[in-house]
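Researcher: We're teaching a course module on how sequence relates to structure. For the next exercise, students receive a sequence and then see the predicted structure as C-alpha cells, so they can try to spot secondary structure elements on their own. Here is the exercise chain.
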Amino acid sequence: MTSSRIFFLILSGIIALVGLAAAAMAHDYLQVFGLGLFAFGVLFAFGCVKRHFDEQDAAH
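Model: And here is the predicted structure for the students to work with:
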C-alpha cells in the first residue's frame, strides 16, 4: 500500500469522525449533513481499500 493511499485512508477516517461529531451535536437538519459526511468518509475508505486489492489482482 502506497503512502498516499495510507494518507487518504487516515484522512477519510478523520472526515468520518468529524461527521459523527457533527451529527451528535446537531439538533435539526445539520444532523443529516453529519451523517452524510460520515457515510462519505466510510465509503471513501472502502473505495481506497478496494482499489488497492484490485491493483494487486491485476498485477497477478
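Model: If you want an answer key for the exercise: The mean pLDDT is 93. Residues 13-59 form one domain.
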